[in-house]
Amino acid sequence: MKIIHLSDLHLGKRVHEFSMLDDQRYILKQILEHVAEEHPDVVILAGDIYDKPVPPAEAVQLFDQFLCGLAEQSVEVMIISGNHDSAERIAFGGKLMEHSGVHVSPVYDGDVKPVELEDAYGIVQFFLLPFIKPIHVRRCYAEEEIESYTDAMRTAISHMERNADARQVLVTHQFVTGAERSDSEEISVGGTDNVDVTVFDGFDYVALGHIHRPQRIMRDTVRYCGTPLKYSFSEAGHEKSLTVVELEEKGKVSIRRIPLIPKYDMREIQGTYMELTDRAYYRDMDREDYLHITLMDEEDIPDAVRKLQVIYPNLMKLDYDNARTRGNQVLQEIEAIEKKSPMELFAEFYETQNNQPMDEEQFRLMQEIMEQVWEDKA
């Protein structure tokens, strides 16, 4: 069974006050073209369909067009809500859409029934688990001890009707410990939203949403596909892509990525004002890309943004790198540290001291110790 894994469309998003709707329309059309070429059996949308719980009408219309484009290709679609979505709004019309092969996660009620599809190797169970918090799961299972996001996820999974002989795919939207974040994601102070990867043991593939950089977590079959577009300059060096997953007999999974090419790239450039406005510098450059420009001049350039936008119309962000701004660097570093979870800080410390990252067993042990410390403090 061939699956295309997508997540975090964030339809309707604005980046530095620039609407991304045209860029999203462009990339969704490109995705539909890849779907037509790949002929997948299933397309997964692992949450954060919209950027806000109440999305603008244009974003809803764009998603409607995208779903119609998928339905026209007779592909099964699996959709869950993410932390940016309204679970109720995403779930609206779900029962009706099933007749068109569009399967939408309902608001979490403790009963996650699998969507079952069949291929030459047998049954594949798809479990659609929307973004959940411990409080959501405690409402359904008051008798169980649920303090952390890991507890909540473990409890939710334990109550799924899993067929051990079938291949099982979990679609969910959470922050799994060890994932590398970007600036465009919501960060929970202290890492309280962390989910330990061990809760996903037994699934043939875990299609994750929430993190914007494509990456595997501990093993190849637990994976974030990332966003189809760059939504912050911390992602300027990322390559956005589709994740294609092929399930054969149980235990045999192949994974590859197809690059996505945006309408306008997101890049960072720097230099003095005179350098960046020299025709020789920008002559062969795609000047319509979204840019973060850092000026190296010691004196501020009057009305620099307006002047630079004559050459670089999609200038999103302007900074200075000079003696004055370097004096603020220590404060910025402190602020960056405060955004990281204790586990992220310890992992960085360990790697600095030992010239190598922690292995999986060390990571799990440290995670257990930290969780115990937080429980004792509570």
Report on the structure:
This protein has 13 helices and 19 strands. It has 378 residues and is α/β, with parallel strands linked by helices. β4, α2 and β5 form a beta-alpha-beta unit. α1 packs parallel to α2 and α5 packs across α6. The mean pLDDT is 89.
Please report the distance between the alpha carbons of the first and last residues.
46 Å
SS summary, helix count: 13
Largest sheet: 6 strands, mixed
SS strand fraction:
15-25%
Mean pLDDT metric: 89
Strand order across the largest sheet: 6-5-4-1-15-16
Sequence-ordered SSE layout with sheet pairings:
Layout: E1 2-6, E2 14-15, E3 18-19, H1 21-38, E4 42-46, H2 57-72, E5 76-80, H3 87-91, H4 94-97, E6 102-104, E7 115-119, E8 122-129, H5 134-140, H6 149-158, E9 167-173, E10 175-176, E11 194-195, E12 205-209, E13 215-217, E14 219-224, E15 241-247, E16 253-259, E17 266-271, H7 273-276, H8 279-282, E18 290-295, H9 304-311, E19 315-320, H10 323-326, H11 329-338, H12 342-354, H13 360-377
Parallel strand pairs: 1-4, 4-5, 5-6, 8-9, 9-12, 10-11, 12-14, 17-18, 18-19
Antiparallel strand pairs: 1-15, 2-3, 7-8, 13-14, 15-16
Helix pairs in contact: 1-2, 5-6
